[in-house]
Design a protein that fits this description.
Rossmann fold, 2 domains, four-stranded antiparallel sheet, alpha/beta, 21% strand
């Protein structure tokens, strides 16, 4: 098992079906390497014309020199490890495709009204393509933008969240990727690490439909594993400490799905839970790194990269979001992540995990 900063990760083997920054007023403009090098590309094309037998190379270089610089807007709900990774992966895919672009990065800092403000801004600016990261950001963007292609990511069930007609055939101008995580396997992991657990607290933000879906799945899996569940919700990050403290003595372990509010406040969750000997199984690796015990989770960088590949198809090949199914990371992209320091604090043996 590979260990980095006391976090160890390994790729799961076998089949697992369906795997999950500055306030909105600030703008970060980034120009792609391709756009910055257009002048250089033009010079290269001119020189290439002097070389016989290089017609294909000339054509490709000229296309880059004369190609469009795409205007892309990105709205990220809040800054935390998973969403940051998805954003990075998206940009990497654009760079790898060699297209010229300018990206307007906006972060709503977890504020739904800020999401709506940015959505209106992007709609008025007539971007070539928009990326919305996390469900509340996606809902704001879909409600404001009708004609521009909108890609969404870090959304558990786009259809259930009212973002597309169906996940198989989205319709309209929206498609993207889902971060649906292997909830059942995460609960199985909890049972393996805390075999004596009888009651599991399910912790999430009630304002996120993404989290409610996962919480319901978790409660079913908890019951199937012969345990009871208790639901604990917060409406904002200000309630996290109080709610987690209320779990002490009432539950034997905690499950927190890929919830953006909980993920952003995971340091607080980990502190209170650790002080009271409560193991926390999380929805994604970043939450484990910030105080959770373990997870089987998806790679958000790869999720973002896959979304970026969709963007390239839309921008350069004329693909229609309406006909592009919501995509999911394959099972082999799931990873086991364990926080050894947390395990040691809790006195839990993780040496037998595979």
């Amino acid at each position: 098992m590979k260990k980095t900063s006391k976090i160890m990760s390994l790729v799961l083997a076998g089949a697992m079906v369906l795997s999950m920054t500055a306030c909105a007023g600030n703008t970060a403009e980034t120009t792609s390497a391709a756009a910055k090098s257009q002048e250089t590309a033009a010079d290269t094309a001119s020189k290439a014309e002097e070389t016989t037998g290089a017609e294909a190379s000339e054509s490709e270089t000229a296309a880059k020199a004369e190609g469009t610089t795409y205007k892309i807007g990105v709205l990220q709900l809040v800054q935390h490890t998973a969403l940051d990774a998805a954003n990075d992966g998206f940009i990497a895919a654009l760079d790898d495709a060699g297209i010229a672009y300018e990206v307007d990065q906006q972060n709503a800092s977890g504020d739904q009204s800020a999401c709506q403000t940015v959505a209106s801004k992007f709609a008025n600016e007539k971007k070539d393509l928009i990326l919305a990261i996390a469900t509340p950001a996606a809902q704001a963007m879909v409600g404001a933008v009708e004609d521009t292609p909108v890609l969404i990511t870090a959304v558990t069930d786009p259809a259930e969240s009212g973002l597309v007609d169906t996940n198989e055939k989205p319709g309209a101008n929206v498609t993207g990727t889902s971060d649906l995580t292997p909830v059942k396997e995460q609960i199985d992991l909890l049972k393996q690490l805390v075999p004596e657990a009888k009651t599991v607290g399910v912790l999430y933000c009630s304002a996120e439909s993404n989290s409610k879906i996962q919480a319901d799945m978790a409660k079913e899996a908890i019951a199937a594993a012969g345990m009871e569940s208790k639901e604990y919700t917060v409406s904002s990050s200000n309630e996290i400490q109080t709610v987690v403290q209320s779990m002490v003595g009432a539950v034997d372990a905690v499950y927190a799905p890929t919830d953006n509010v909980i993920a952003a406040g995971m340091a607080t969750v980990g502190m209170v839970a650790g002080d009271n000997n409560l193991p926390v199984i999380c929805g994604e690796a970043g939450m484990v790194q910030n105080g959770g015990l373990a997870t089987y989770g998806i790679d958000y960088y790869q999720l973002g990269y896959m979304t970026g590949q969709q963007a390239v198809k839309i921008l350069t090949e004329g693909a229609s979001p309406a006909d592009m199914p919501i995509e999911y990371l394959p099972a082999e992209k799931c990873e086991l992540t364990v926080n050894e320091e947390t395990a040691q604090t809790l006195g839990i043996d993780v040496s037998g995990l595979k």
